[in-house]
Amino acid sequence: MKTIRFLFKKYLLENKYTQYDVEISRILFYASILYFYLTEYQTHYIPEVLGIYEPQFFHKWLNLPLPGPWITNLETFWLITLVFSCLGFLTNISKALSFTIGFYLLGLSWGFGRVTHVYNLSVICMGILCFSNCGQLLSIDSFLKKLFAKSLVQKNILLRVVKNESWALRLCQLSWSLVFFNAGLSKVLNGGLNIFDPIFLKNMLYNAENFQNPLLFDLMEKTLNYPYLWPCILAFTIIIELGAIVAFFQEGRLKWFIIGSVALMQISAFMFFGINFRKMASGYLFWLPWSILIKKHK
Amino acid sequence: MLTNLSQIRPLLAFALFILPSIFCGVTKKEMWPFSNYPMYSSTRKEQKKFHYELVLRNASDQSVQYDAFFLWPLDKARLSTRLSNLNKNSENKKNKMQAYLVYYAAKLKQLNQAEKSEFNNIVKLQFLKVFPKEASDSDETYEIVAEMNL
To answer: Which of A56, A205, A231, B64 could form a disulfide with A196 if both were Cys (CB 3.0 to 4.6 A apart)?
Structure first.
């Protein structure tokens, strides 16, 4: 128990992030979900035809309702809660609603056979932010509180009672690390040494159904002639994925090297195999010490 | 104890969101939104022998192009995988395929009502099983596995 308490304090509660970092991450995080949803994800369900719908996991166990004609209204309502969470208006209620509805809406597509992992991290981070008291600064709520404070003393008290909730950032970072660690672990446990087989790589390339760029395709074909090149790249990828968990416990250059390498890995996967990880970009927002960056810029 | 009041919320968040993620990672369980990565559960050593495709045909039996949003909530790759899995697992695979065709027919109807004129002349929806072209073949070969007239 002592060890757990020590680890909990050292890695979650005591950190260099300030409440400003939490608030800026909150604004950018909800804005990014809103952006990705509006540009890519709108559901377009046909509620009348549900012969193909098979609810999965929590949707099944909790007996959550089937999508009906009301789904469009629910989507609109969800978008409003995302805007409110981003702007910090009725922040706690908005965050809770955006998580609950997001959990339902984004998980709905699994019932139609769309198994995808790119929104998992966003939903988990929305859940974590629900438990934190963010919205104390840089929000409409805090602005209104100050506006309606009766005296200068009250305003100063409001400023002084701002609590540092940066543990929420750390938990979001931990879930980011776990996503990649789990991916690496799964490859090692299930694929074993097979994943270094050049035949597997070749098939992966030829089977990438949304592969678009003939120039890159040619380049990949040529590089497949070098027997050690791709196994080395793959080994590096897996080490980086497993190492993502180290980024949570480490500070300094190693942390940024791992985060940068993971980003590079995702960009390369998009370029070579057409796998789009754009929506996972929200997860990177929690790593940046925004207040330090802003101070440096000034 | 850890539990003075200021530490209850981080502890709860940890228990509700991080522990299930660790559990799914270790036990290889697929469970939205904490899931692991089942797509790496096996390594593919052979090229795919075929894939499934949805084709919209107009009155002169030509196929009409559609964008990625038309297939939503699936996409080209996931539709093919889904239909392949039906073949393995589902007893009434024909019915399921027909259900998908009904779904996309309803989608067409909705788009036509919204005056998307390029789909006005669609008369038939088909699921094709497409075999990749061999060096000797000039075209891909295919087999119609389900069909629906509008």
So the answer is: A231
Closest by alpha carbon to B105, among B131, B66, B77, B78?
B66
Residues in chain B within 8 Å Cβ distance of A207? 44, 47-48
Structure tokens that stand for A4 in this block? 């757990």
Which one of A10, A15, A117 would you mutate to disrupt binding with B, by most B Cβ within 10 Å of its Cβ? A117
Interface contact flag, A51 B102, Cβ < 8 Å: yes
* Residue carrying the six token digits 């929590």: A58
Q: Is 90 exceeded by the pLDDT of residue A99?
A: yes
C-alpha A165/C-alpha A133 separation (Å) is: 7
Query: A32 by DSSP, 3-state: which?
Result: helix
B51 touches chain A (CB under 8 A): yes
Q: Is A107 on the interface with B (CB under 8 A)?
A: yes
pLDDT of residue A62: 83
Per the prediction, chain A carries an average pLDDT of: 82
B76 reaches A (C-beta below 8 A): yes
Selected residue with higher pLDDT from A157 and B107: B107
Helix axis angle for B19-27 and A167-186, nearest 10°, is 0
The residues near A176 (Cβ < 8 Å, ≥ 6 apart) are A121, A244, A283, A284, A286, A287
Using DSSP bridges, classify how beta strands B51-58 and B141-149 pair: parallel, antiparallel or unpaired.
unpaired
ipTM here: 0.83
Taking 50 as the pLDDT cut, the residues of chain B under it are: 1-2
How many other CB atoms are found less than 10 A from the CB of residue A216?
A: 15
B69 vs A1, A8, A44: nearest CB? A44
DSSP reduced 3-state for B131 = strand
Lowest average pLDDT, out of A87-91, A119-123, B81-85, goes to B81-85
Are the beta carbons of B2 and A4 separated by less than 8 Å? yes
Which one, of A264, A238, A240, lies nearest residue A254 by Cα? A240
A124: nearest CB among B33, B43, B99:
B33
B141 DSSP 8-state letter: E
> Is A200 near chain B, with CB under 8 Å?
yes
List, as one string, the DSSP characters of B45-87.
Answer: -S--S-EEEEEEEETTS-EE---GGGGTTS-HHHHHHHHHHHH
| pLDDT confidence of residue A210 | 46
Sign, CA torsion B18/B20/B26/B28: negative
